[in-house]
Design a protein that fits this description.
mainly beta, SH3 type barrels, six-stranded antiparallel beta sheet, 47% strand, globular
Length: 94
């Protein structure tokens, strides 16, 4: 369902603000919502919604990005103590 990417591949892609990604190894990277966005169980709109955040909300980035079958990139985050995925269409790396 999704294509896994490593950090080097992510930096070569033109996804908004990915040039600042260090891989999340220091747990300081965050993903910030650029609009209201759903958090999903997996990296695609085909996965169930586990919650939602409003514009400006920041979540810890877990250092993983995947591309779905539509070509949309998803960032793995921590959300209310669980793992979730946020679409790059509604979020950016900070």
């Amino acid at each position: 369902m999704s294509e896994e990417l490593n950090i080097n591949e992510m930096q070569e892609l033109n996804m908004e603000d990915l040039e600042s990604v260090t891989g999340g190894k220091d747990n300081k990277q965050q993903i910030q919502a650029t609009g209201d966005v759903n958090i999903r169980k997996g990296p695609s709109k085909d996965y169930a919604i586990i919650g939602s955040i409003t514009k400006g909300t920041k979540l810890p980035f877990l250092g993983e990005v995947k591309k779905d079958s539509r070509g949309v990139y998803w960032g793995k985050v921590t959300y209310k103590g669980t793992t979730g995925w946020v679409s790059s269409k509604y979020a950016k790396m900070i």
